[in-house]
Amino acid sequence: MTEHTEHTECAELVVIAHNMRSAYNVGALLRTADVFAVRTVYCTGYTPYPRQRDDARSPELISRLGHKIHKSALGAEETVRCLHHPGISALLAELRAEGYTIAGLEVDDRAVNIAGYRTPAKLALLLGEEVNGIPVKLRASCDELLEIPMHGTKDSLNVSVASGIALYALRSG
To answer: Where are the domains of the chain?
Structure first.
């Protein structure tokens, strides 16, 4: 039996998935977001996303992407609010106006270790594409950059795995 914990006194978290290519990674992210009580996952750039209200994409594309997302989300696409937002800059401005701190998850000289990070009351976690991460220009528009310490020979993680580690650390901090 699994015990579910209410997160009423925890930080309000949203996630921005920017330019992810894999619908399977989006599904895994949604499943992880459900576990950590993420308020909303925003899909920006070319990130695949589940069916939206008034969705203008072709029914075939919606169906194909929906199937792939569901395969790893296992129903979380129905429990997590997931919104497509056409412009990353406009979204960041909207979230800042709502009081969110924008933190990019990225290996960068400016990044601080997520293990010691104190999560603010409202945080938007920005995730980048699978191979190149968050573009340099977009990193510059983040309030903070966070990184997961790497102790092995690899210097990166799959984006959905990294999001799970990051959300755990943010909920614990």
So the answer is: 12-172
Q: Is the pLDDT of residue 8 over 60?
A: no
Percent pLDDT > 70 in the chain is 95
pTM for this model (two decimals): 0.92
Task: Give the β-pairing of 122-127 and 112-113.
Answer: unpaired
Q: Count the residues in the chain.
A: 173
pLDDT digits over 44-59, tens only? Answer: 999 999 999 999 999 9
Q: Provide the CB-side half-sphere exposure for 59 (13 A, CA).
A: 0
CATH 3.40.50.12280 is right for the domain spanning 12-172: no
